[in-house]
Amino acid sequence: MRRFWNSFKRAGLPAHIGIVIILIYLIAAVFAPWLAPYGESEVVDPVPWASPSESGTLLGLDQLGRDLYTRVLYGARNTIALALGITCLAFFMGMVAGFFAATVGRWVDHLLSRCVDIIMAFPTLFFALIALSIFGTSIPVMVFVIATLDATRVYRISRALAMDINVMEYVEVARLRGEGLWWIMRREILPNTLTPLLAEFGLRFCFVFLFISSLSFLGIGIQPPAADWGAMVRENGVAITYGIFTPLVPAAAIAVLTIAVNLVVDWFLRKTAGLREEY
Amino acid sequence: MSERLLTVKNLQIEGFADDAWKPIVNGIDLHLDRGEVLGLIGESGAGKSTIGIATMGYTRPGCRIVGGSIDFDGVPILTQTAEQIREVRGVKISYVAQSAAASFNPAHKLIEQYTETPVQHGVLKYQQAAQNARMIYARLELPDPDKIGNRYPHQVSGGQLQRAMVAMAMSCEPDMIIFDEPTTALDVTTQIEVLAAIKDVVKQFNTAAIYITHDLAVVVQLADRIMVLRYGDLVEESDTRSMLESPKEEYTRKLLAVRTFAKNPEPETKEEHSLIEVSDLHAAYGGGIKVLDDINLSIERCRTVAVVGESGSGKSTLARAMTGLLPPMQGSIKYQGEELPRSFKNRTKDQLRQIQMIYQMPDVALNPRQKLRETIGRPLGFYFQMDGAEREQRVKELLEMIELPTNYIDRYTPELSGGQKQRVCIARALAAKPVVIICDEVTSALDQLVAEEILKLLDRLQKELNMTYLFITHDLATVKAIADEIVVMLKGRIVEHGPKEEVLVPPHHEYTELLLSSVPEMHPDWLDDVLASRSAVSA
User: Fold this and answer.
1) Is B352 exposed, middle or buried (0-12, 13-18, 19+ CB in 10 A)?
2) Which residues of A touch B349 (CB under 8 A)?
3) What residues of chain A, 154 to 173, have a C-beta less than 8 Å from chain B?
4) What pairing do the DSSP bridges indicate for beta strands B208-213 and B37-41?
5) Mean pLDDT in residue range B163-179
6) Does residue B318 surpass a pLDDT of 80?
């Protein structure tokens, strides 16, 4: 832990900014009900797109007269929690399958890899649209579909990483000791692949996050009246033609978080790759 | 003859590690005359390679030259611009690296790589350079010197490649060549060819050379003068013969005395069954060419059997077959009279426990993300269901047994030195309470003094715990030190097998004779004597 803190202190300004922003977002997501002045779908004043001065709120109202500030806070909750859940699920599936394929090898590896290739052959958005229209647009279905799609990318990386580790003599030692597959995957391979996978986690999280937003934007993601930044951009999109800034707020929320996560990921990648700045 | 070529004064080099610049070389003075060969010797971390390449004005990434001056043939190397240094490098100074395989570009033919430097620098035209190449190839006794240049690096053997590398270094007829451990990665029988080649060309062209190595016996064959380095400081400097006769410093004496360790032979035990009995063993990778051909071998309890041979002789494959990593095609391995399943997957947990293995490279044999507590503790938990305080206690006992401080229990393996890592590997093997330990080249990646400590440790453990060892090595000095019985392997077959006293004393099998006579000895005329006696035999 102290080692981590030390390396964090030297991480540089961009990473520090990124971490501060992420912390703010997390606080907003966790404490949304206490921070928000109104309820998630409460209509404050049935005047669409009332400006802050007209409505007496921080950021004005949305297309149905709900408080935008409240909606953005709740949106953080829904969007981030979902994105985090999906990324975790994707990593769990992808890593288990990837490590399994790499350690067992032979036909298991071929079978899994070809299945993954098939899924990857479809454009992701297209695949998600089909799956969601077949199984219906509910949150569990969406979580599972996006997680599966993302797991294919995670599978590829974790398989490649695990194959490098799998030929190491310490893995051979564990095999000769008689250790089972699960131990080898968990105790020998996982710790040695963790750093690059963590960096990948940050990156994947961004993609998932944008993906949910784009699904919501298309109307098949998180369903109203639940607040979601992507959906909020879509619902308020028309306002931009009247010169109203409302849709830019959730859009900015997406952009800033994406950038912040990437700043932190960059730091991680730099740390793992050993690509330090010139002295 | 004794014209001064290189003068290095107060050279200081720092390296970046753990967020700070730390000194690697602390003010070394060095000089070299034309045609002179200087040996730089020391253990890893002595700074010998760093000094060697610094004379070309180069440092490895993460290192910097912070002080001193280097004067090469009137050129102050350290104050030159990159362009000016380019004029010197490759033309007047050239470099021969340890691993020829890693230094050649695998995508180009040997002769293309030979001619590149002189043509690039405009010293020679391509045709002229190519012709020179053939001459030097012939001089270095490469087979078929007219055509070998048209081969790619992977199409020639390791020793040939190293000689091609020496040829390449000679391409511009430089004033000085830096040899950085050029024979360390080679078998003894190949090493002798390369040494002879180097000695010959250096004399022929009156080239000065800096010869960097950790092996004193090798350097005394070539060097006129030797500098012993340790931790970036000069320990001792004198001409070769007087250093051998009267070393001044304690450290030099230690280096000279290395390889004198020899254990007391274990008494022969008579039991109904040999502990391990290998009979008619045949093995191959992927059903291809046979790597092991009709191996018969028996190992008695509490004895050390050493398997020697060059790379490619199948000695490591024998270990893999015995552990079950490579199921043999034919033949049987009996353990205490009982036949072991061919693949380790079908062996019982207890069978696996009793045969443990220690590897050549402790770096890759230890999981870098585990603390010693887990590395050593896991076999205890796995085989004996030990946990908690009991397991902790036992791990500490094992650490004491391998002479490491018990507070190392919370260290990760990358925090240890090479010798300490190898000790941890030994502790991990011991944790399983094995009967047999297979040691696969366990000392070849270590410095000689460290290696000797490991051998002593293994010997002590054998006496205390009644261990049986199968010792696989290419190093005859190790064999002499530790073996009770010797098995000599060549191309997958056993050519000689018997107690140490019999195998090491003439008459030898022809191949054993070759191996034994190729081990460098600590006196400067050894190489010439061996070459003379060999040509007498062939003539």
Assistant:
1) buried
2) 178
3) 168-170, 172-173
4) parallel
5) 86
6) yes
Residue ranges of the domains in chain A?
12-273
* pLDDT above 60 for A149: yes
C-alpha atoms less than 13 angstroms from C-alpha of B59 in its C-beta half-sphere = 18
At B58 the three-state DSSP class reads coil
Query: Residue B292 and residue B320: Cα distance in Å, rounded?
Result: 11
> Would an 8 Å CB–CB cutoff place A192 in contact with chain B?
yes
d(CA B295, CA B518): 25
Nearest CB to A170; choose among B323, B347, B367: B367
The residue of chain A with its CA nearest to that of B347 is: A178
Domains and CATH numbers, chain B: 4-257 (3.40.50.300), 276-505 (3.40.50.300)
Helix A106-121, helix A139-166: angle, nearest 10 = 140
Residue type at B346?
Answer: N
pLDDT of B505 > 80? The answer is: no
**Distance separating alpha carbons of residues A4 and B306, to the nearest angstrom:** 46
Task: Report the pLDDT value the prediction gives residue A276, as an integer from 0 to 100.
Answer: 41
Chain A with chain B: Cβ pairs closer than 8 A = 51
| Concatenated DSSP letters of B226-270 | EEEEETTEEEEEEEHHHHHH---SHHHHHHHHTT---PPPPPP--
Interface check A125 vs B, CB under 8 A: no
- Model confidence, pTM: 0.77
**pLDDT beyond 80 at A111:** yes
**SS3 readout for A188-208:** HHHHHHHHHHHHHHHHHHHHH
Q: 3-class DSSP state for residue B53?
A: helix
**C-alpha to C-alpha distance for B482 and B394, rounded to whole angstroms:** 28
B343 in contact with chain A, both atoms CB, cutoff 8 A = no
A175 contact residues in B (CB cutoff 8 A): 325, 344
Is residue B423 scored above 60 in pLDDT? yes
Q: What is the pLDDT of residue A279?
A: 31
Report pLDDT digits (tens) over B51-108. Answer: 888 888 888 877 888 888 888 888 888 888 888 888 888 788 888 887 777 788 888 8
Q: Do B344 and A175 make contact, defined as CB atoms within 8 angstroms?
A: yes
Give pLDDT, residue B1: 47
pLDDT tens-digit profile of A42-82? 777 777 777 777 767 777 777 777 888 888 888 888 888 88
Of residues A263, A223, A201, A260, the one with CA closest to residue A25? A260
Chain B residue with the nearest C-alpha to that of A168: B364
Reading the block at residue B112, the tokens are 């293309």
pLDDT at B87: 80
| DSSP, residue by residue, B276-337 | EEEEEEEEESTT-SEEEEEEEEEE-TT-EEEEE--TTSSHHHHHHHHHTSS--SEEEEEETT
ipTM: 0.74
Q: Which CATH class is domain A12-273?
A: mainly alpha
State how far the alpha carbon of A58 is from the alpha carbons of A55, B6, B177, B223, in Å.
Answer: 9, 77, 76, 83
Strand partners, B8: B30, B70
Mean pLDDT of B207-231: 87
Give the Cα separation of B377 and B298 in Å (integer): 32
Q: Does B357 touch chain A (CB under 8 A)?
A: yes
Task: Return all residues near A234 (Cβ < 8 A) that are at least 6 apart.
Answer: A216, A217, A218, A219
